[in-house]
Amino acid sequence: FERLKQGLQKTKDGLVGRIDTLVLGKKEIDADTLEELEEILITSDMGVKTTLELVRTLEQRLKRNDLKDGAALRAALKEEILQRLELHHAQLNPSTRHPFVILVIGVNGVGKTTTIGKLASRFTSEGKKVLLAAADTFRAAAAEQLVAWGERAGVDVIRHKEGADPSAVVFDACKAALARNVDILIVDTAGRLHTKVNLMEEMKKIRRVIDREIPGAPHETLLVVDAATGQNAISQARLFKEAAGVSGIALTKLDGTAKGGIVVAVSHEFALPVRYIGVGESIEDLRDFDPREFTDALFL
Ligand code: GDP
């Protein structure tokens, strides 16, 4: 928990620090206070839609005389944020299928490979047999990096030559996962965003191959976004959700940004569960997302 708090320090200072300056010692809450709060939430990347909804709810509570002072407003905000995070929350449980297939998507540089490497290490240490597929065949460096993570975690990586058909890699990886009795197959894909149509076609093809080899798979399509990119993360979530069908989100690099409100925005605007958050570079810094722990780390 202390590590999480540390990782979220910038958001704590930026978001909650400013809220504290606004509300602490206030004996009475009025419309102006809520307007200032709205400004703080928006600039912390809580998202326009989520912010307006939060402020509207707080206005109603104010009318009901539910917000007597600054402390009450602070507590109410935390409660409303927690409620929204819990609404969509679901942890990923790879024990439900065998093999469990995770398709990982997202643009380059967001921390996709690192996240896959960390997940591979973690699942392995939990006693699971993991296999990785390097279906990002457009950058040789991507496969190299995945292999490096694989070596560290003691996990095999299925890869082809640079420029190979990603679907061929996926096909081989599915065959290998079945033949080797693997528990979890994690597929890394290319983060190219030429056009939405392109992306859709590529994803469709990869999905078709996976589903043909392992019926019902992929069981999770995990979108990785970089929290520090703020509104870009939101537009990526929108695009990938429409084009590739996302079932869960991993938000990386929260340690590097004061705009951690993005966690709430991404989850709430797209009705998607946040599965993991990254609050640092080491393996332990990729954490299962827990709404209560997250809001406690920010507000306590
Ligand atoms: P990819 O291109 O999406 O595969 O991105 P990489 O996995 O190569 O990651 C890009 C950089 O982000 C690397 O230097 C990672 O160490 C770094 N990174 C990934 N996740 C986190 C995180 O949660 N916190 C911090 N501080 N850095 C991260």
Automatic annotation (TrEMBL):
Membrane topology annotation: Peripheral membrane protein
Catalyses which reaction(s): GTP + H2O = GDP + phosphate + H(+)
E.C. designation(s): 3.6.5.4
Domain SRP54-type proteins GTP-binding: from-to ranges: 273-286
Role of this protein: Involved in targeting and insertion of nascent membrane proteins into the cytoplasmic membrane. Acts as a receptor for the complex formed by the signal recognition particle (SRP) and the ribosome-nascent chain (RNC).
Main localization of the protein described in the UniProt heading: membrane
Protein name: Signal recognition particle receptor FtsY
Subunit structure: Part of the signal recognition particle protein translocation system, which is composed of SRP and FtsY.
UniProt binding sites for GTP: 106-113, 188-192, 252-255
Localisation per UniProt entry: Cell membrane; Cytoplasm
This protein's UniProt keywords: Cell membrane, Cytoplasm, GTP-binding, Hydrolase, Membrane, Nucleotide-binding, Receptor
Enzyme kind, highest EC tier: hydrolase
Family of this protein: Belongs to the GTP-binding SRP family. FtsY subfamily.
Presence of the UniProt keyword Lipid biosynthesis in the record: no
